User: Fold this.
Amino acid sequence: MQERAELTQAKAVDRRSEGSTAVALSARRFMRIAGGWATAAVVALLIAVGASAAGSLPVAPVSLNASEAYNGLQVTPTTIIYTGDGTGFLGGANVRDRHSGIDWSKWTADVALGTGFNQLNNCEPSCAGGQFHGYPVKIELWRPRTLAGTLVFTRMTIFYRRGRPPGQPHHYTFTDTYEGAGAGGYGWGPPSGQACTHAYGLKPAADCKNIHSLP
Assistant:
């Protein structure tokens, strides 16, 4: 009788031990699953926050008549074309290297800072057969505003770091314009410093009042 009682007690202890082990395993399994859920939730939250932050940054038109179509409004663009025919643009040192572009050191909700080259075509003997000359510049985008529902930088000032084209000031400021969806979209004006320095007998452009504006 005593042996039978001891055997019954031992089986009960084994069952309790198995139950405890199962509970512990279930708890650990739950913690792993919950941890996975928590990790996934944190990752999803970080992605959402990052996307929201990127979406709240001002953009800049990369050419004249730019729009969201064809990626015409960008954050940290490689190049910014400010003439209608492409004879003047901001980019890298090598116009033939697609990997050469503006080097942005800062792009925030208030200001964007970068360095690059003001590439100008001498149009000799023609613009199609001319050569580009790059002038090192510091670039600053500022005065963010909402135009037609899009947050954009409305001023772009370039500072010549060493050497500059004849007849152009040490720095000048472009204005981000919006002419309406049916009229072309966003762009930079005036297109060059020529109209603002009375070169070639041209009258000053309407936006030349911003030519000496500084951030």
Observations:
- Residues 19-27, 36-53 have pLDDT under 50 and may be disordered.
- The longest helix spans residues 2-55.
- Strands lie at 60-61, 73-74, 80-81, 88-91, 103-107, 112-121, 132-147, 150-160, 171-178, 186-189.
